[in-house]
């Protein structure tokens, strides 16, 4: 083999080696951002990534409590979220803090779902609009608002349903066509009642005849058969973690999730 052929062969081999290394590192990075457990029936992943660590602590990580794996989130003041809209001033906040994951697939329209999970709030959740669960509708070029948001404001549970959505919804972000959120909870739930305790949440999201929402906390109805709307181009999907407006008064919040399951209601 000539020197020219030797050089070409070495270059090709080196290129293939580098490509393989990039693929392996990319795969490991993707796997590192995935979260699952044997008692869940849904895989979760950080589609925007995670904010920078504070004091060496990962914002989202699997922990083992008495032999049972749980997904733990912790968010410190100033941990700006990694999504493209988080470092923007919007909705009366200079930026948005986020450590959040979403399901890999979607909730198909025309079906009804029961979404259940256990949440153990460890600390915090006394700031403004500290969201721990969403059913979002964003889908590529469809900039849809979330049909359902669940958060604590001032330590009180708020459950929002999207209303007033029109045919143009999803085409332009932050427009009046997107609709607006309304508080629909009928029962007062305080974070002080839940801190340090395992709380069971059940969300029934029915899109068979328009949108319908019911929410149960430890078996008690908090929202019952209320209407919820979504953009026609939306692909609803579940998100969970901590997502909140940035601000000088924010303190650390932490929550653990387990037994995350999404089932079709027949």
UniProtKB/TrEMBL annotation:
<dbReference type="InterPro" id="IPR025975">
    <property type="entry name" value="Polysacc_lyase"/>
</dbReference>
<keyword id="KW-0456">Lyase</keyword>
<dbReference type="GO" id="GO:0016829">
    <property type="term" value="F:lyase activity"/>
</dbReference>
<dbReference type="Pfam" id="PF14099">
    <property type="entry name" value="Polysacc_lyase"/>
</dbReference>
<feature type="signal peptide">
    <location>
        <begin position="1"/>
        <end position="32"/>
    </location>
</feature>
<keyword id="KW-0732">Signal</keyword>
<protein>
    <submittedName>
        <fullName>Polysaccharide lyase</fullName>
    </submittedName>
</protein>
């Amino acid at each position: 083999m000539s020197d020219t052929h030797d050089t070409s062969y070495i270059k090709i081999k080196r290129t293939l080696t580098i490509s393989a290394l990039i693929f392996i590192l990319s795969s490991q990075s993707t796997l590192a951002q995935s979260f699952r457990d044997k008692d869940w029936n849904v895989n979760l992943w950080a589609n925007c990534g995670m904010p920078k660590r504070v004091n060496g602590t990962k914002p989202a990580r699997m922990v083992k409590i008495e032999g049972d794996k749980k997904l733990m989130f912790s968010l410190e003041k100033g941990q700006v979220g990694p999504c493209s809209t988080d470092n923007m001033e919007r909705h009366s906040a200079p930026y948005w803090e986020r450590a959040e994951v979403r399901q890999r697939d979607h909730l198909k329209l025309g079906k009804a779902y029961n979404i259940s999970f256990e949440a153990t709030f460890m600390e915090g959740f006394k700031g403004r609009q500290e969201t721990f669960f969403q059913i979002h509708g964003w889908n590529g070029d469809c900039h849809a608002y979330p049909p359902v948001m669940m958060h604590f404001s001032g330590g009180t549970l708020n459950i929002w349903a999207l209303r007033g959505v029109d045919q143009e919804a999803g085409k332009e972000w932050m427009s009046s066509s997107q609709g607006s959120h309304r508080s629909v909870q009928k029962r007062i739930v305080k974070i002080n009642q839940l801190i340090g305790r395992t709380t069971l949440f059940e969300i029934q999201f029915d899109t068979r005849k328009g949108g319908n929402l019911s929410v149960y906390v430890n078996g008690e109805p908090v929202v019952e058969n209320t209407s919820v709307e979504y953009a026609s181009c939306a692909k609803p999907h579940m998100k969970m973690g901590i997502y909140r407006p940035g601000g000088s008064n924010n303190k650390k919040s932490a929550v653990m999730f387990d037994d995350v399951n999404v089932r079709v209601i027949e």
